[in-house]
Design goal:
Blueprint lengths: L1 H18 L16 H4 L40 H10 L8 H14 L1 H4 L8 H4 L16 H10 L13 H18 L8
Helix pairs in contact: 3-7, 4-8, 7-8
């Protein structure tokens, strides 16, 4: 047993001495990249000087005229004329159906009901607590799909824009739901304009 222990100990010592020395001639690894910058890249900070870009900064502005993939730019201006143009011409691309109305209901509850009320009567929680006053009742306004969408995009009077919180499809779903609320509030013999 003592003999086996001595052999194992000597073997471990020989291995440890030869592995850490230049007794065994080793060749260095071969680099296949021609340029050293491609093999070990130079890191640059995002807003630090970078000689590879025209203005010296790595963070670049998007090319003029480009849009995000899947986005359709809204080109009606945020003016009174733009509001009237949207009111008269803008139409929803979504089909009015139960699925869109259900989604619109959920989005309306999250984004709009706190001010406009669950029924669209202008009696939301913030109005009841006198935090925001003058929220109109939908039945008292002549609104169209286009005017609702435009107001969601840019805001109007005391209402701020909700464009950053909602994508295009979600805005149109809310428009459908607001139209439904307005119809529910109107007396049955009144026109839907």
């Amino acid at each position: 047993m003592k003999h086996i222990f001595n052999i194992v100990a000597i073997t471990l010592i020989v291995i440890s001495l030869t592995s850490c020395s230049d007794v065994i001639m080793r060749k260095p690894n071969v680099r296949y990249m021609a340029a050293t910058d491609m093999y070990t890249s130079v890191g640059y900070e995002t807003y630090a000087k970078n000689p590879n870009f025209k203005n010296g900064l790595e963070a670049q502005l998007p090319v003029a005229g480009t849009i995000f993939r899947g986005e359709i730019p809204y080109e009606i201006a945020n003016t009174e004329e733009g509001y009237l143009l949207a009111k008269e011409t803008l139409m929803s691309p979504l089909e009015v159906n139960a699925a869109n109305l259900a989604k619109g209901n959920v989005l309306y509850t999250i984004n709009c009901a706190i001010c406009h009320g669950d029924k669209g009567d202008g009696q939301g929680v913030l109005t009841q607590r006198d935090k925001v006053l003058g929220i109109p009742n939908y039945k008292d306004r002549i609104i169209t799909e286009g005017s609702i969408y435009h107001v969601i995009m840019y805001g109007r009077n005391m209402m701020g824009s909700h464009a950053s919180q909602l994508n295009d499809n979600e805005r149109w779903e809310i428009v459908q739901y607001v139209q439904k609320l307005r119809t529910d509030l109107l007396p049955q013999n009144t026109s839907n304009n």
